[in-house]
Design goal:
- It is a single chain.
- It is built from 18 helices and nine strands.
- The protein is mostly helical.
- It has two domains: 198 residues, Fumarase/aspartase (N-terminal domain) (Fumarase C, Chain B, domain 1), CATH 1.10.275; 279 residues, Fumarase C, Chain A, domain 2 (Up-down Bundle), CATH 1.20.200.
- The strands form four sheets. The chain has a three-stranded antiparallel β-sheet with strand order 4-6-7. The chain has a two-stranded parallel sheet with strand order 1-2.
- A hairpin with a 4-residue loop joins β8 and β9.
- The radius of gyration is 27 Å and the shape is elongated.
- The mean pLDDT is 94.
Length: 508
């Protein structure tokens, strides 16, 4: 595995995604300047405590309890209480890739050197990633400010040898897992519980994974559209370069360019060519292009959050200042994920509409109803892709329903201290669900595109472009033509997995 260095230098979404897949591992920066900066922050916090300085969450209670002074004799116990009482998560546990992404996002933030934590804490998170000891983190319970308090409490507890981890595919007590790799539980310093928990690592880690999947789906939806244009004997000239120069959205133009390349050898004569295809084919660049054009902006929001110090208070070790603020507020991730899930759901809707045309003999221009491959006396009892179209419609409807923005559902919590919150983690979870559903839609429509091209080739041999020919050959190897009715669920799941592992190299 390639090492990714965590030393406060800027990381990319791809770094966190590689870490999540175990294609890379985390390595804490070894440069003296970086380590001295981290140590300076921890030393400054220790000196303030020794001099009876007042620090929120260190010598005071948390949240609306910030006016409660903590006696010096109890200050050391406060971090334990913080992660203990936040152990109230619910819902499904984060998956292993999601958990690695969260650990990477938290380590990236703490390595900015403004959280007042020790090198020992950073090394313990590095150790979890190195040995793949993954805290069991419930996915529900965060309002996205003060950061991801409840889910991140499970990371804090594991660092201290409490709660449970996944190790080699098994659930084991954290203390046992640490012993197995020769590590000992941490005793958190006064600021460190707050530094671990009071940040946006869960929503940011999930956002990195969502971005990568959405980026791939935009390309896949483009390739599927090209296949469906050919299968339905559509008009390849809807994506003309001069036409798209007249509306210069860069992402939209890029989609049209890809479609032109995919359809290069599919040039119907003017006598056979319809002037205008229906919108789900003709306007595909305008739909996919919205996501393509949003991706650079979404990357900026996600990567800025990833490379930020986002707990509270921040510790300025250079000027020796304690800075009380609200960087735990996940509004940028919330907006990014609400935007992303809406654009992705539109891909599902686009592909669902293409499929509805493809299976309908009134609109598919000569293909059999439901794209059945059966003929002769066997035709009446075979139903082709009838049920597939119903399932795709169901997945699309659910994806569209999930697009209600989470970011506008702020609730006042914690005795009105957290009276405006981001809901960023809920937005990220919603985005992942929309991606799940849209990937299922894409897999289903891929099956139909493969079937449609196979049936069109029966009518008149096709001269496909190299890209479409390669894609069709790959799909034919994965999925025989549907002639006699058969259950398609296993083939569907295999295609979904192929999408999630980005099995096809689509466009440069």
């Amino acid at each position: 595995m390639q090492p990714i260095t965590f030393d406060g230098q800027r990381l990319r979404i791809e770094d966190i995604c590689a870490l999540s897949r175990r294609e890379a591992t985390a390595r804490l920066g070894g440069a003296p300047a970086f380590q001295q900066r981290i140590q300076a922050g921890a030393d400054f916090v220790a000196r303030l405590l020794a001099e009876d300085g007042v620090i929120y969450g260190v010598t005071t209670g948390y949240g609306d309890s910030c006016t409660v002074a903590v006696p010096p004799s109890l200050v050391a116990e406060l971090p334990h209480h913080l992660y203990t009482y936040h152990g109230i998560g619910a819902g499904a546990m984060l998956t292993e890739p999601q958990t690695r992404a969260v650990l990477g996002a938290r380590l990236a933030s703490l390595c900015q050197g403004m959280s007042g934590v020790s090198l020992d804490l950073l090394r313990q998170i590095e150790l979890l990633l190195t040995h793949d000891l993954l805290p069991l983190i419930p996915s529900e319970g965060s309002v996205g400010a003060s950061g991801d308090l409840t889910p991140l409490s499970y990371l804090a507890a594991v660092l201290c040898g409490e709660r449970e981890v996944r190790m080699n595919g098994e659930t084991v007590p954290a203390a046992e897992a640490l012993r197995a790799v020769g590590a000992t539980p941490l005793k958190l310093r006064p600021k460190e519980g707050l530094a671990i928990m009071n940040g946006t690592a869960v929503m940011t880690g999930l956002a990195c994974l969502a971005f990568e999947r959405a980026e791939y789906l935009a390309q896949l939806a483009t390739r599927i559209t090209a296949m469906n244009v050919v299968a339905s004997a559509g008009n390849a000239h809807h994506f003309d370069e001069t036409l798209f120069d007249a509306k210069p959205h860069a992402g939209q133009q890029r989609v049209a360019e890809r479609l032109r390349a995919d359809l290069a050898s599919e040039r119907p004569s003017r006598n056979d060519q319809r002037l205008q295809d229906r919108y789900s084919l003709r306007c595909a660049p305008h739909v996919v292009g919205v996501l393509e054009d949003a991706l650079p902006w979404l990357r900026q929001l996600i990567e800025n959050e990833l490379n930020s110090a986002n707990d509270n208070p921040l510790i300025d070790p250079v000027n020796e200042r304690v800075l009380h603020g609200g960087h735990f507020y996940g509004g940028h991730i919330a907006m990014a994920m609400d935007t992303l899930k809406t654009a992705v759901a539109n891909l599902a809707d686009l592909l669902d509409r293409q499929l509805a045309l493809m299976v309908d003999a009134r609109y598919n221009h000569g293909l059999p109803a439901n794209l059945t491959g059966a003929s002769g006396e066997r035709a009446p009892i075979n139903h082709g892709l009838k049920a597939l179209q119903i399932s795709v419609s169901a997945w699309t409807a659910e994806a569209l329903k999930q697009t209600m923005p989470a970011s506008v559902f702020s609730r006042s919590t914690e005795c009105h201290n957290q009276d405006k919150v981001s809901m960023g983690t809920i937005a990220a979870r919603d985005a992942l669900r929309v991606l799940d559903l849209t990937e299922q839609v894409a897999a289903g429509v891929l099956m139909a595109a493969r079937q449609g091209l196979g049936l069109r080739d029966r009518i008149s041999p096709l001269a496909l472009s190299p890209s479409l020919a390669a894609m069709q050959a790959d799909l034919c190897a994965r999925m025989p033509l549907v002639v006699e009715d058969r259950a398609l669920d296993r083939e569907l799941r295999a295609l979904v997995e192929a999408i999630r592992t980005r099995s096809w190299s689509l466009y440069a």
